[in-house]
Amino acid sequence: KAKTAEEKHRYENFAEGKTKMTYGVISNCVDDAGRYSYVKRLREHTPLDLYGRCGNLTCPRNGSCEALLKPYRFAVTFENSNCKYYTSEKFWNALNRRNIPLVNWIPEQVPFDAPPKSYINVHEYQMEDLAKLLKRLANNDTEYNSYFEWRKNYTVIADHFAGFCDMCKALHNDSVPAQVVDYKSWLADDTCQGWTLTSIITRRIKNYFV
C-alpha cells in the first residue's frame, strides 16, 4: 500500500545524514546586527564551522556548496540588519537544506510566513543555554524532528521567480485598494540603525573587540 504524504513525513528521520553540528556563512564582519561578534562567542560553547571572509572555510558559489552545508544540523542565518519585515534568502535556503535555522530576529522582523517551530531565535536564550539546547537536539532525533512538523502543512518554494509571480498577482488584484505610501514616515518608523561616522567606528569596535 502506498503511503500518504503525511505517513511519509511521519516516518522520515530528518536527523539522518546530519553528521555535523552548526555552520554559518558570513562575509561582512562589521554589520548592524553584530553577527560576527556573536558567532565568535558562540563558538566557545558549541562546535560551529564558519564559512566566508569572516571564517576559515570556503563554500564555492555552485552546487558543491549545497553538498557541503546539507549535512549540518543547524545553520546560523543571522541577518546583517534588524529592520522591520527584513528576512533574506539565508533563512529559506536553510529550510530547504533541512537545517534548523538559528535566527537573530527582533519582534518587528519576524516574517508572517515563517513556518511555526521551524527555527530557533537566539534572542530567546542565554548563550550557554542555547548551546545546551543545540546539544540536546543533536542527541535526540525525536526532539530534532519536532522542528520539521511544519512540513506536514507547508512547502518552501525555492524558485527565484516565485516572488515576481506573487508581485504580478498582487498588482492585478483589484480587491486590494490602491494606497499612497508616505515612504519618509515609513522609513522613519523603521528599526534599522542609521549610518554615521560614530556608528561606523562603534560597529568596528563592537565586532572585533567585544
Automatic annotation (TrEMBL):
Superkingdom field: Eukaryota
UniProt GO cellular component terms: Golgi cisterna membrane; Golgi membrane
Pathway field: Protein modification; protein glycosylation
Enzyme class: transferase
GO molecular function terms noted in the UniProt entry: fucosyltransferase activity
EC code(s) of this entry: 2.4.1.-
Compartments, as annotated in UniProt: Golgi apparatus membrane; Golgi apparatus, Golgi stack membrane
Main location: Golgi
Membrane-related topology note: Single-pass type II membrane protein
Pfam families: Glyco_transf_10
Keyword entries, A-Z: Glycosyltransferase, Golgi apparatus, Membrane, Transferase, Transmembrane
UniProt cross-references to SUPFAM superfamilies, sorted A to Z: UDP-Glycosyltransferase/glycogen phosphorylase
Keyword Transferase: yes
PANTHER family cross-referenced by the UniProt entry: ALPHA-(1,3)-FUCOSYLTRANSFERASE C-RELATED
Family designation: Belongs to the glycosyltransferase 10 family.
Annotated protein name in UniProt: Fucosyltransferase
Annotated organism of origin: Magallana gigas (Pacific oyster)
